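Progress report, Aim 2. The chain analyzed during this reporting quarter is listed below.
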Amino acid sequence: MNKRSDAPVGVFDSGLGGLTVMREIVRQIPDERIVYFGDTARVPYGSKSRATIIHYTEQILNFLKTKEVKAIVVACNTVSAYALEAVKDRVDVPIIGVVKPGARVAAVSTKNHKVGVIGTEATVDSGLYSEYIRHLNPKAEVFSKACPLFVPLVEEGWWHDEITTSVTERYMKELKEAGVDTLIMGCTHYPLLRSTLREVMGPEVNLVNPAYETAVELRRTLEWRDLLREEDGSEKCDRYRFYVSDASERFGRFAQSVLGFDVPAAEKINIEEF
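Predicted structure tokens for the chain:
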């Protein structure tokens, strides 16, 4: 194993949702080392200006550089939509967002060319999913819906709850009426509501999980650059490091529920120093 392939992958999010992206990376390429940062002190990003989101992203990239990561995954739809293009040339390693991989799959898999996108208000307002889908599939109609209540419901742990089902039914009503056959879960929290979305939308609607597609894209990128890490028999807890800007105990509880294994304690850092 060369030294560069043994370096970790950096994964970051504005808070907790990016753990679903990490979960998919662990499933797709389980031997990789991962450094995860959640900006829990400054979440949510969706209510911030583009300039502020770019500034926060630059600070996080500076932090990940200190960990000598070999690739970076932007596990946040808001950052992917508002800051990725502005900062991608400021790092000398591959940097992958969550928007394009999910949009690409939706654009080619839709049969009736009607694609639904659900996400935070910031992600929906950015229009990036719609723009990229239409670029790849000019016939596509894109129907977007902001679902701001989904994040607090997920973080409350109400993944399978009648209240969540009721909220989902209300949010999905216009997308069902539009006849979408493909639905992008355009926020990293939303895959945790997959079973509820499946129940509400019906089995005929294809649910696209950008977290999964991003993990596939990461594996492809590491393979192409000969950076895949080889299995060395180490325990999971030794391969992963977690950092947050606040609320490390709450982060740890949520991370364990998402990842399904004992999560090492998250270290709180002052991200403003970077």
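DSSP finds 13 helices and ten strands in the chain. The two ends are 31 Å apart (CA to CA). These observations will guide the mutagenesis work planned for the next reporting period.
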